[in-house]
Amino acid sequence: MTAPRVRFAPSPTGSLHVGGARTALYNWLFARRHGGAFILRIEDTDVERSRRELTDQILHAMRWLGLDWDEGPFFQSERGSLYREAADRLLAEDKAYRAFETPEELDAMKSAAKAIGSAFRYDGSARAIPREESDRRAASGEKFVLRLSIPNEPLVVNDAVQGRTEFPAGALDDFVLVRSDGRPLYHFTVCVDDVAMGITHVIRGVDHLPNAPKHVALFRALGAPAPVFAHLGMILGADGKKLSKRHGAAGVEEFQAQGVLPDALDNFLALLGWSPGDDKERMTLLEMVSLFSLERIGPSASRFDHEKLLWLNGQYLQEIPAARLVEMLKPFHLPNCDAVLLDRAIMLHRSRARTLVELAHALAIYGDDPRVFEPAGLKKFGGPEAAPLLRALAERLSVTEPFSHSTLEESGRALAAEKGRKLGDLAQPARLALTGVLASPPLFEMIEVLGKETTRRRLLAFADLIAREPEAH
RNA sequence: GCCGCGUUCGUCUAGCGGUUAGGACGCCGCCCUCUCAAGGCGGAGGUCACGGGUUCAAAUCCCGUACGCGGUACCA
């Protein structure tokens, strides 16, 4: 394949949603796979709804996902002259024409069509207006829109994902290219830009599939070959409805805030509609690049399975280089403690968290002593009989040298044996004393990280607590 | 209404005429074990939406039906 040129063309009317992110990802993967160009174009022709901050937000989200672009961002709002030239050319070549119907007249035609139960299609009557008359009326200031003159022949959309579909002659009406106030409309700007930018492949959501025949008609009028289309199935929420804020997170930065890693989100999104063909699931962006192809994209809609995302994220949490994990954790609330200690704690806890938020939360115990204790834990291991055991453990560990998890564990086991207890009888209350909860990394490894003083303090304090007020819990 | 697209375990998917319909998430069990994860092993879960064809043979090809989704703008 000669170097393809693809584009991602969001409109800045909202933040980057996962659907858009997946579209961007597929375009990016395709460009990288074939050594092509990935172009970013901001479709902001609807000035009422477009906002500059949202553009920045979208760019930020894309960078976070690792999707860098080769050209752009181009803003359609700044390319007015290009569209005007194209409009003039189409008009001059009789491929488009002025239509002078007012919005009110059009509305009347629409309701008339509806009354007899048929779809409204502009009848093309303005095509018959002679050029001289059209020019004269335009010059006299009469309002008009520019409509595309669609030839009376079938239109074929070749789609790499959805297959070939043919639209019979007459299926489309002569749709509007330019508003009566001179501002160009979406279909027009898209095609003019795609031609100007030399776009070879258009990868976007199926919601655009009904637009595709309009676009092939436009490409034809513009005298350019139509690009190859690839329309992606929708991403739905868990309930099968269109994904929205109602389903919890739907925007990229919401996942970021939840502590989802960009690599995990990329990986997850890649699998929503595409598969490498074998059973491979966990892939880096680089691996995806080497495996990606349009042929392996499925046509159907898919649901966003948050559980699977969390699983994948947990996998990445375990595997990414420690330095990178520590770096990614920084925006989250972390305990105030020695950095080396914290790094070791992170290594201990990383396999137990599914998000950075969960990890940061678990790390809190390396800062402050636990103030609350899991009720179920108190019930099971908070009886007063545990107090002397914990005190004994505190003493024993205090004199254990070196203060490393293996020798600490030997001490702990020896103590349990001396008391005729199982290690768990000692370890469980100790875990509760040190962390406040019943689930944690291996006890003695945590103790090694927590240090002698902290360990002793917490064990004794907890022993006092349960000895003093056994019925309080 | 009209036009278009889709439909394989609950979910994401493999499958592109002949398979005991494979994998992953989730779920259940076992192992590991000081707990919880991770990891390992195993299990339950699919009349391949339905009905007709074509074929020796259909999840795979064709035609209908149902359901879902999208479009039907001087929005994108």
Apparent shape:
elongated
Q: Look at the structure and give the mean pLDDT.
A: 92
**What is the CA-CA span between the terminal residues?**
71 Å
Strand content: 5-15%
The number of helical segments is 20
Within CATH, the superfamily of the domain at 1-74 and 233-319 carries the name HUPs
Instruction: Please give the CATH class of the domain at 1-74 and 233-319.
Output: Alpha Beta
Helix residue percentage:
40-55%
Q: Rg to the nearest angstrom?
A: 32 Å
Q: Which residues sit in consecutive blocks of at least 5 with pLDDT less than 50?
A: none
Strands of the widest sheet, in order across it, are 1-2-3
Tell me the number of strands: 12
Major beta-sheet overview: 3 strands, parallel
Protein structure class: mainly alpha
Question: Can you tell me about this structure?
Answer:
The protein is mainly alpha-helical. Among the domains are: 1-74 and 233-319, HUPs (Rossmann fold, 3-Layer(aba) Sandwich), CATH 3.40.50; 322-366, no CATH class; 375-472, Arc Repressor Mutant, subunit A. It is 47% helix and 11% strand. The chain contains 20 helices and 12 strands. The protein has helices at residues 18-33, 52-65, 80-92, 103-115, 131-139, 186-196, 212-221, 252-258, 262-271, 285-291, 306-319, 322-329, 339-349, 356-363, 375-381, 386-398, 405-418, 423-435, 443-450, 452-468, and strands at residues 5-8, 37-42, 71-75, 96-99, 145-148, 155-159, 163-167, 176-178, 201-205, 228-232, 235-236, 302-303. The strands form 5 sheets. Strands 1-2-3 form a 3-stranded parallel sheet. A hairpin with a 3-residue loop joins β6 and β7 (163-167). The longest helix has 17 residues, at 452-468. The radius of gyration is 32 Å and the shape is elongated. The chain binds one RNA strand of 76 nucleotides through α4, β7, α6, β12 and α11.
